[in-house]
Amino acid sequence: MVTRSLVTDVGNDILYGSSAEQTLAWVGEALARLRRTSSDIVVTDLPLASIRRLSEATFLLFRSILVPACRLSRAQVLERAERVNEGLAGLAVAHGAKLFHLNPDWYGFDPIHIRPSLWRVAWQEILGSGLSTGADGLSLLEGIKLYFKPPERQWLFGVERLNPQSNSALTSAGRVSLY
After folding, report:
1. DSSP three-state, residue 20
2. Which domains, ranges and CATH numbers included, belong to the chain?
3. Is the pTM of this model over 0.85?
């Protein structure tokens, strides 16, 4: 079995007001922690192509729906996202991780989330064909459990919640932790 660790879903913090430097510091911490348990780490970049395709009006619509408190302009978000993207490449090199460039075709109207119909294809590409997925891969129930698994630390309504990570076992013999 191949054990592979993954750093993905980076960049949402930009819309919540985090600087590129803070976001990259968090990724660096996650990479250092993952390095202690795995030598095979994949870091995904940001979906910059789909973000760049947004018109000003569409950007404002998404920003207003997803993060109503955000007042960053499209230009500010793009500038921070580009700095984070450059930093991810440097962190991948520094931590001996693979950098995976996301496929712009995986994104539709929503510029930052992979279309659900392409999740399986995307994850197979991101994680690579060498990953043991079992005969049928994840069951629907297992996929739903993973989707809703909370990260180790999160803030809800200004209150920090700690969720110990137990490296949830998958039926395919893999393990998942969210930091």
Report:
1. helix
2. 5-131 (3.40.50.1110), 133-179 (no CATH)
3. no
